[in-house]
Amino acid sequence: MKSYKLIAGILSLLLLLSVSIMAQEEKEMTQEEFQNEMNRLTQEKIELTKEVNELKSAIDALKAKQAALESIDDSQKELYALVGATDASVARFRKDVAMLEAQLKRREGSLEDAKLALENLQKNKISALPEFNDKVHGQMQRMLDAWTQEEANKVVNYTVVRGDYLWKIAKKDKFYGNGFAWPVIYNANRDLIKDPDLIYPKQVFKIPSLNDAEKSKYDKARSNYKPAPPTQD
């Protein structure tokens, strides 16, 4: 407010000074010239007053914006306190989110590692903050689901060699690592396999990926399997 009064005072002094000077030179100016000069100075005062008012409005707007930012900052601090976060921990979390998001976009690294990383981010209370909630629990989850589906849809080929049987193929680490999953191979190659106990060298089988339900099913079958006790003679 003091600034506005100072500016107005300066303008008034300038106008008075100009009028004084004009009064001293009044003998050399005609009445018409004097009036024109007064009109010019009056117009200048109007324009300067307008500029002062615009400056005042701009200052008021900046003060309002500053108050809003301070209010936002206070709200953010309250949110951080609710999830037990600090500026430093949020910064680290933001960095981890950015790194994993880039990995998901590029389908980079191990899918299982990406699943674990996202799971850890989602378990972190910081993920509940508005900045992260939709990205971590929504967008990135959908990206991971899409990657998982792509992997599930992949099919590799395997050429049968002497001594192979479906259980043995399914148990290979590069496929399922679980012999109980052999029906998946059988069902994917019914056009080539008439009897699951009879397969032949040089046959080329499609080996589809297991979906989550199949993997759970055959993992459970393996864990529940109990070999028959040896017979006694």
Give a short summary of the structure.
This protein is mainly α and 233 residues long.
Give a topology summary.
Elements: H1 2-24, H2 31-82, H3 87-106, H4 111-123, H5 133-153, E1 155-159, H6 166-171, H7 182-188, E2 204-208, H8 212-224
Helix pairs in contact: 1-2, 3-4, 3-5, 4-5
Number of helical regions = 8
The strands making up the biggest β-sheet line up spatially as 1-2
Q: Describe the biggest sheet?
A: 2 strands, antiparallel
Compute the CA-based radius of gyration.
40 Å
Distance between the termini: 109 Å
Helix % is: 55-70%
**What overall form do the CA principal axes indicate?**
elongated
Give the SSE order as H and E letters.
HHHHHEHHEH
Mean pLDDT: 83
Report what the structure shows.
- By secondary structure, the protein is mainly alpha-helical.
- The radius of gyration is 40 Å and the shape is elongated.
- The longest helix has 52 residues, at 31-82.
- It contains eight helices and two strands.
- The model has no long low-confidence stretch (mean pLDDT 83).
- The protein has helices at residues 2-24, 31-82, 87-106, 111-123, 133-153, 166-171, 182-188, 212-224, and strands at residues 155-159, 204-208.
- The protein has three domains: 2-73; 87-152, no CATH class; 155-224, LysM domain (Membrane-bound Lytic Murein Transglycosylase D, Chain A), CATH 3.10.350.10.
